[in-house]
Specification:
17 helices, Glycosyltransferase
Length: about 425
């Protein structure tokens, strides 16, 4: 984009103006705080209180970690192995990693996901055990090193991808133009992961904001701003404005409010919750199926469960932030998505009688790619169902394959934290 565009969104009691030049944010202003808003920024982003009664995280080695899979992982960053393992991310090139190892069907993100989990789990346990003084030097050194090295910042942007599409050098959609080609490259996955990484980094930075020195804070703040401008805002703005699917970080809503929490911009939060809710309302059909999520070939139930997880995550985070405008009708449709998930887990043939109205072919029909279980990174979906809906979590809780596969994770990467710590 060579011209300057001004986007103006008007909603009751709130006006929002963003100015863009060459696809980059130039100015952000003109928010009017809704005086009737009850929204607050929790002390710990996803929780008002953190202690051993409200949150316990136990580390375990998983894919991408340096230890034996499923073995205990000490959540202590004074541990030299842990410290060195996290510092190694300064040499990480996600752009190349994705090109070498990922396609439309599979995104191999374990190298950064495992490190983000170790960092987050160590921070949470340091807060709960009141030993932040012991851990803070390692935490701040690691995060400052990541910022100084510009981890992820060489990743292509949505603007870069759009230019390639215009030049005919990239498919318009993944899976070879939505033709079911599982081996085809999917460039948006690069940006998607950069957005997830950025949001997770910001949440962790927010948790230890008062631990950074002045010099470290300035560096971290600049890095966060770059992550936001290049990946978080563009991803959330694009996907909250479309009518397709509902995936990680509540389709970017949680990513943006993480940035707003870091910047202490409470006056802008309701606007983004409103956008997340509007998007959720667009993608949930009246019978509880979810646009695209529910119709993904041999991974349909798996993707549907990811949608349910993120929809309940959106509902839960609004409640924790004391946002009081979540539509009752939408809550009921979210609860229906749980009914559909239960159907998929107990009678997949009946589940599949509902046909996809979109006609998209971004999936595999090959049984070797099948996943009929709850998404393994939705590690606390049963807890979310039990605490933020009126539905029964039994079918999810008893899903054998889910329980086995999720045992290597201790952070839900859909949100960047363990949902059971929310309060």
């Amino acid at each position: 984009m060579k011209n300057i565009f001004i986007l103006l969104f008007l909603i009751p009691s709130l006006s929002f103006s963003l100015t863009f030049k060459d696809g980059k944010i130039v100015e952000e202003n003109k928010f009017e705080f809704d005086k009737n808003s009850t929204t607050v920024i929790p002390k710990y982003f996803f929780a008002h209180v953190l202690n051993s009664n409200t949150c316990t995280i136990k580390g375990v080695h998983g894919d991408g970690s340096y230890g034996e899979k499923y073995s205990e992982l000490d959540l202590d960053l004074t541990n030299e192995k842990n410290f060195n393992y996290l510092m190694k991310l300064t040499e990480y090139d996600w752009q190349k990693e994705h090109e070498d190892r990922s396609n439309s069907l599979s995104v191999n993100h374990e190298k950064h996901t495992s490190r983000l989990a170790l960092l987050h789990g160590s921070i949470i346990n340091a807060i709960i055990s009141n030993n932040m003084e012991l851990q803070s030097d390692s935490i701040t050194k690691i995060m400052t090193a990541w910022a100084e090295s510009g981890v992820f910042l060489n990743t292509m942007t949505l603007e870069d991808i759009n230019k390639l599409k215009e030049q005919g050098k990239a498919d318009r959609l993944c899976y070879g133009g939505s033709k079911g080609d599982t081996k085809a490259k999917c460039l948006p996955h690069k940006v998607h992961e950069a957005h997830i990484y950025g949001a997770s980094f910001i949440i962790n930075a927010y948790l230890v904001k008062d631990q950074f020195s002045k010099e470290q804070f300035i560096l971290i703040d600049k890095y966060i701003q770059k992550l936001y401008e290049k990946y978080i805002f563009p991803w959330a703005d694009k996907h909250l404005n479309d009518d397709r699917a509902f995936i990680q970080m509540a389709d970017g809503t949680i990513s943006v409010i993480a940035y707003l929490a870091w910047k202490n911009k409470l006056e802008e939060v309701d606007f983004w919750f409103d956008r997340g809710i509007k998007k959720a309302s667009k993608v949930i059909y009246e019978d509880g199926y979810i646009h695209n999520n529910s119709f993904r070939g041999v991974r349909d139930v798996w993707y549907h469960s990811q949608g349910v997880n993120n929809l309940l995550g959106l509902l839960a985070i609004t409640e924790v932030w004391n946002y009081n405008k979540f539509p009752a009708e939408l809550k009921q449709r979210i609860f229906k998505t749980i009914d559909v998930l239960n159907l998929g887990l107990t009678d997949v043939e009946k589940y599949r009688e509902r046909k996809d109205p979109s006609g998209l072919k971004n999936f595999s029909t090959d049984q070797k790619d099948a996943a009929y279980h709850v998404h393994q990174m939705a590690i606390s979906l049963d807890w979310l169902i039990e605490n933020f809906s009126d539905r029964d979590p039994t079918h999810v809780r008893e899903n054998y394959m889910w329980k086995a596969k999720k045992s290597q994770y201790f952070v839900d990467r859909n949100f960047g934290f363990e949902p059971k710590c929310m309060n």
